[in-house]
Amino acid sequence: MPEYVYVKNPLDKLSDAIIDAYASFMDKVKPGWKSKNRGRIEEWKLMFYTLNRSPLGIAGAVLVAFFIFLAIFGPYLAPLSYRTGLVLCDLKARLAPPGTVITIPHKDYCIRMGVHPGKFKFLLGSDNYGRDLWSRILYGARTSLLVSILVVSIGSGIGIILGLISGYYGGIVDEVIMRITDMFLAFPGLILAMALSATLPYAIQGWFKRHMEIAEILGYLFAVKRIDYPALASLLSVIIALWAVWWPGYTRLVRGSALSVRENTYVEAAKALGVSDLSIMLKHILPNMIGPILAYITMDLGGAILTEAALSFLGLGAVPPLADWGRIIYDGSQYFPYAWWLVAFPTLFIFLTVFGFNLLGDALRDAFDPRTRRSIEFKVKKIVAKEEAQEA
Amino acid sequence: MAELKKFLIRRLLTFVPTLIGATFIVFIIAVMIPGNPAQLWAGGIKASKQTVELLIKEYHLNSPWYVQYYYFMKNILSGKAISPVTNTNIWKSITTRLLQVTLPLTLFSFILIVAIGIPLGVLSAIKRNTWIDNVARAFALIGISTPIFGIAYILIFWLQPHGLVALAGMPLPKYKITGIPPIDALLKCDCHYLLIFVKRMWLPAFLLALAGIGVITRVTRNSFLDAMSSEYVVFMEARGFPKRRIYMHILKNSLTPVITILGLMFGGLLAGAPIIETIFGLPGLGRYLLQAIYNFDYLTLVAGVFFVAIIYITVNLLVDILYGVIDPRVRY
Fold first, then answer.
1. Cβ contacts of B279 on chain A, cutoff 8 Å
2. pTM for the full predicted model
3. Are A142 and A283 found together in one domain?
């Protein structure tokens, strides 16, 4: 009788190792976890096999990993700070094309700014203040990643909670929540975000003065110098503005799936056993619809980066000294036909990042879909004779 | 038909509260602005006391916000509201910008989305897992992830020397029938104006449509594939129907989700307009609202949101009615 055996490539083995390590870790924390969740571990491994067999998904994962690397280590790798303008050291530094090498003289002014005398190369060119574009792009990666993570995590969190409540309880609760959601969906989100991010900074600046520690935490996260802390109010207002826009979509999505999952027999059984509403929602309904939502969140991270850059491009996001991809394009567009690098490179970086998130999200949706997972299972498995199977 | 009537009544009952709620949200945001709006409107610190007091009296700024809201909505709905910053009639300036620039732009890109997105999605589904499919899917993803504000400059730089795009001014025809220039030109068969219009608008409309094309291609592809695995397709194939006829049946069955998304997208296009209008220098509603935000002219802003919300809710209502036309199984 023939038997099945998995044909694994190196990536599969790597993902197996990661999942096994996680499983044994959980087993140590909670004894018996591994044997209890054997099916779940098997399913996770299959999910990774699916992901490993989609070249576009791997490309997306690589792009995303590269972006996250830039965002975490970028500010330390950057040759200059985001606000160091070299134009007063050397006039050639103004709007220098990519690859320009300038000589920094031994002047007090330059040394005080933290530049060593000698030669300096603008890898991707410089802007009108003589700031290094490559450094600013590295700092901008941090800004983009943090804004998108903060926006999507809190925004989707609010949306998922409201959607779950609305879909689970139904009736009057559902009606009230969905009408409020409809109000937010009734006009385009970007206009609301524009209005909010234009009016909030004044309130937030006053708030910063009273609570210095918040500005300090944010300044540390965004790798911003102390002198630019007031400018952080603009970033925080963009984040708050996008929260207000982000949740309604998730509420609709989650409510729809919650309505259908709620009808399952196991939910009824849990209710009959007297399980509390909260734990039914979190333990029985949410895990059964989380797959598509996670894929959606991954794609949304890219969408948040794009929206934030768009707001900054309109002059409503990050304010000048801060490094932000959208803002670099906005400032650079004034010098456009000549200083093409100020528009082209940030555009390229935004595109690659968002493209990576979209590719990964697309592949994740396939991996979370049980139908594609099953069809992949047969591709991974190979029929072999019994003796060979035992050897393997 | 009785069902449709009931449905329409129910929807119209929620229409007004939703509209009020939407303007309300923006109004509350606007009122949150600290400081003295009258002082800002009158020209900053140097403004004379008399002018400020006049403005406060005119716009009821010392009253509680709900009183302000009431007077403001009354003014807008009667078409008499005057913007304190630009000193023009809000109703008039918004409707002319909306009808002359933003609506043609949005409709143009909407047509592009439908004309490119749906065929691409269908093609991609029919030629599943071939290079055509891969190219179409890659194009869709690229469309979704391109920052239009960056790519616009690069495309202008590339196309302008060849005379393929016009960037200055907004040509208007001399006659006026509906108030929407390209539709007027179509009614009058004025090819000359249409050509000018297309030359000015094709790039902005295409860039505005880019993300939408991507989304619609993907949705069409997925729902077409779903419909293709139905049993009636197998039956039709076995019965020997020509391919084209089978595809027409599948297409009709797979359009419901596509139309939902298209309806939701219309508002998104109106919202995306500020970026495109800023880059291409089109004097449209989006840019006007952006200017209003910069000037703290929140009366114009709320009025603009009011108009956009009306369009948005109406389009979605039409979509819900369309469901029944496409899919007779739908019950309202």
1. 333
2. 0.87
3. yes
